[in-house]
User: Which sequence fits this backbone?
């Protein structure tokens, strides 16, 4: 079935009176036209010099879409106009999402973010660098003599998950169940907003049911694992409430099990197709470390949303309180108005502009861990497999959503060229 056929079977919202017909576009964030040829390519098709800063789609419950990097950044940075009260689409599903502090705006959000930062700040991440590195080595070494692997399955789906589960002090045998819950939240299936909402709500409650007994066990504990630090932290001088602790720990699980997993596969697909880019950093440690931020600019994977907080005219467009605005971060890093020649991966690019980690008060708390995992992956992979390519006939499969997923990434290499 074609993407167009899928879209045609979906429920379309009626166009509200304040939305001009010329701003309407048929765009489904869960079934992007042309995604079979690439996720970023599919989003980029809607961005152009004559495209308005905001367009509106009747799909996924009906919502606005920010089309320029500057708009995406402004919306992220201004919670007084664009609230985080609802961040998932369709809105009916987003209203079921109960994790904290992502649904909070400042000042309520601020102490929860400070608590998150105590567990994910640069100093704590530096302390686990050797463990992260060893986790990567343990996965790569057995692959080297094989001369091939499915990178998405054999490395990307395991490495950041193993790192996070160790940080959280949770057993790896729980991962398949947690990954299924994560998939149902970030890429829910359904033919109507109500169906999607039901699936997301069930997944959200599944996370809560999982973390509930873990939290009760660790209250009052003295361990330094991420969950113990969170549940024994304070909010405005008082220990975090049980209800909020459940939401906070569930959020950590959701973030730790999905986003970096898919980012790693995206940049490895690109490098497998561009051996000249690999050659630039293979023996240049400094360029590699400095260039990791360019990878995040080039391969954003998140498309979350904000809710319009009050009636307003924004960039000449009338918005009503309660309207939803989707922020496809792919359109930030790939915007020519933000970065010259944005399709090009330039390890030495200066003044990199992107919103891959969002912006403003909700800038991703896990960004330091994500940067470390990306850096370590490149370092340890290239030490052992300096030259690699996509297998002949390879066609990665992309699944759009709040976080895009990518599967089937077959890499091959000549064993005698490894080191």
Assistant:
């Amino acid at each position: 079935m074609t993407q167009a056929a899928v879209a045609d079977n979906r429920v379309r919202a009626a166009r509200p009176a304040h939305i001009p017909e010329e701003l309407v576009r048929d765009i489904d964030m869960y079934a992007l036209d042309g995604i079979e040829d690439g996720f970023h390519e599919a989003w980029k098709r809607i961005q152009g010099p004559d495209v308005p800063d905001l367009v509106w789609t009747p799909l996924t419950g009906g919502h606005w879409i920010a089309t320029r990097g500057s708009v995406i950044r402004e919306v992220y940075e201004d919670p007084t106009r664009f609230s985080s009260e609802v961040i998932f689409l369709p809105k009916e599903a987003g209203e079921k999402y109960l994790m904290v502090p992502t649904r909070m705006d400042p000042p309520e959000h601020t102490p929860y973010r400070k608590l998150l930062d105590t567990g994910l700040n640069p100093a704590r991440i530096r302390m686990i660098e050797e463990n992260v590195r060893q986790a990567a080595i343990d996965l790569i070494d057995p692959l080297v003599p094989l001369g091939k692997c499915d990178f998405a399955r054999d490395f990307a789906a395991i490495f950041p998950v193993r790192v996070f589960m160790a940080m959280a002090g949770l057993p790896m045998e729980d991962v398949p169940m947690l990954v299924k819950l994560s998939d149902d939240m970030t890429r829910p299936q359904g033919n109507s907003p109500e169906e999607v909402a039901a699936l997301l709500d069930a997944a959200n409650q599944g996370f809560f049911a999982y973390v509930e007994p873990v939290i009760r066990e660790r209250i009052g504990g003295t361990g330094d694992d991420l969950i113990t630090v969170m549940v024994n932290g304070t909010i405005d001088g008082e220990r975090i409430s049980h209800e909020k602790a459940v939401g906070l720990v569930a959020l950590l699980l959701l973030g730790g099990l999905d986003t970096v997993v898919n980012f790693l596969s995206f940049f490895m697909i690109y490098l497998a197709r561009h051996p000249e880019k690999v050659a630039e950093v293979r023996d240049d440690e400094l360029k590699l470390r400095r260039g990791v931020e360019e990878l995040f600019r080039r391969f954003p994977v998140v498309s979350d949303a904000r809710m319009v907080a009050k009636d307003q005219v924004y960039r000449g467009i009338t918005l009503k309180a309660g309207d939803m605005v989707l922020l496809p971060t792919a359109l930030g890093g790939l915007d020519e108005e933000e970065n010259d020649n944005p399709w090009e991966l330039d390890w030495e690019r200066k003044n990199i502009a992107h919103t891959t980690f969002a912006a403003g008060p909700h800038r991703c708390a896990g960004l330091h861990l994500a940067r470390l995992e990306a850096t370590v992956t490149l370092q340890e992979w290239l030490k052992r497999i300096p030259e690699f390519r996509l297998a002949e006939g390879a066609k990665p499969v992309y699944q759009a959503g709040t976080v895009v997923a990518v599967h089937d990434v077959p890499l091959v290499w000549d064993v005698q060229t490894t080191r």
User: Anything to note?
Assistant: The chain has one domain: 3-417. The chain has 18 helices and 14 strands. The radius of gyration is 21 Å. The longest helix spans residues 193-218.
